[in-house]
Known about the structure:
Elements: E1 4-9, E2 12-17, H1 28-43, E3 49-54, E4 59-61, H2 75-82, E5 97-101, E6 104-106, H3 108-115, E7 118-121, E8 126-128, H4 142-150, H5 152-161, E9 165-166, H6 167-173, E10 178-179, H7 185-197, H8 201-214, H9 219-234, H10 237-247
Parallel strand pairs: 2-3, 3-5, 4-6, 5-7, 6-8, 7-10
Antiparallel strand pairs: 1-2, 8-9
This protein binds octanoyl-coenzyme A.
Octanoyl-coenzyme A binds next to strand 6.
Amino acid sequence: MGTVGFSIEGNxxxxxxxxxxxxxxxxxxxxxxxxxxxxxxxxxxxxxxxVVTGAGEKAFSAGADLKTMPPAESYAGKAFGAGDDSFVAAxxxxxxxxxxxxxxxxxxxxxIALACDIRIAAPHARFGLxxxxxxxIPGAGGTQRLPRTIGASDAMLxxxxxxxxxATEALRLGLISRIVSVDSLLAEAQSLAHRIASNAPLSVxxxxxxxxxxxxxxxxxxxxxERLVWGVLRDTEDRIEGRRAFQxxxxxxxxxx
Length: 257
Ligand code: CO8
């Protein structure tokens, strides 16, 4: 692979945007490679969690590549033909994603981060949706995920001005969960991913799905859905294994069944 690094250690995959000369901006080649790794993460049963990061220390990603013109194909043909999934909409829905933000997270870069489940960042990281400054809008979930993550007023400030916030402000806004020194950022993200991957895989996947699906439902329906999923998991081998391991004072050996 050329501009997206991909490695697996244990049950954890690491995806690295790697176009340092362009602040890890996403050009069509990178987009195609990202789609391939997203698919791999969702469908490979050996992968239980993934870390998404950027190469170098300057940027996680400065968003869409502003030096490549978008393809001149008919948008209607795309939307009603082959489908119009953005590279963010194509991100894994089944496995938890931890974003290690190692510098600028702008435009489509922040939209990828927003579609991850957990975000941690280096102290020098900066965050923004500057699309409005370059004559477009965040078209990969930014206008929807940012207000749902940090609230309407702060999101509108960022969306309408295109201004950036620093890591301290991002922590205050709830845009990130932790600030971690740049030297330990990747290790910290991978350690979180390994801890998640050591938990019962079906429970992990069920939680990710419930949080995603439940957020769009009225609370009573969401809680009913949660109860149903709890019932589905009650009969799994891993639930029995979890209790047995507790009683026998050993680590559980989860198989995802
Ligand atoms: N695209 C292409 N090249 C870039 C990009 C980019 N987004 N960002 C930076 N670069 C390049 C620069 O052109 C420069 O290259 P060169 O050395 O050849 O001139 C190199 O990276 C270093 O950048 P700078 O010299 O500008 O470095 P600075 O430290 O001065 O500034 C910034 C860094 C703040 C990141 C600055 O480069 C910048 O503002 N970049 C543009 C950020 C931006 O506007 N991003 C939004 C893009 S639009 C978008 O993401 C829409 C997504 C919608 C997805 C929809 C899918 C369906």
